[in-house]
Design brief:
The protein is mostly helical and about 100 residues long. It has 4 helices and no strands. It has 2 domains: about 60 residues, Orthogonal Bundle (Arc Repressor Mutant, subunit A); about 40 residues.
């Protein structure tokens, strides 16, 4: 297996490719692979090359991958909703117990 060399690709082009991937990922139903494929087609490089640039950029600056932050926020939101539901159930049970004590 030979490794392709893209000597004409500058750091500026790589940075622009990473920004393009980031922007494409904000579009609905666009995966990382799909975004990398679109950018790679424009640059005439292999999609895995663009994905490697993306991963290197994220390692250098994790805030680039804001979709991970969104996923974490959604996970926190889901946990909060479950907690609220549990409190609502507990409150309902406490109200029922108070009503029984008052009428009993």
């Amino acid at each position: 297996m030979t490794k392709q060399q893209y000597r004409w690709i500058t750091t500026t082009v790589r940075s622009a490719a990473v920004r393009a991937v980031q922007e494409l990922r904000h579009q609905p139903h666009t995966s990382l692979s799909g975004a990398c494929r679109q950018v790679a087609n424009q640059l005439d490089v292999h999609p895995n090359t663009v994905k490697n640039w993306w991963h290197a950029a994220v390692l250098a600056d994790p805030s680039i991958d804001d979709t991970r932050l969104l996923g974490a926020a959604l996970g926190d939101l889901d946990a909060a909703v479950k907690q609220v539901q549990a409190f609502k159930q507990l409150n309902a049970e406490l109200i029922d117990a108070l009503d029984e004590n008052r009428s009993g």
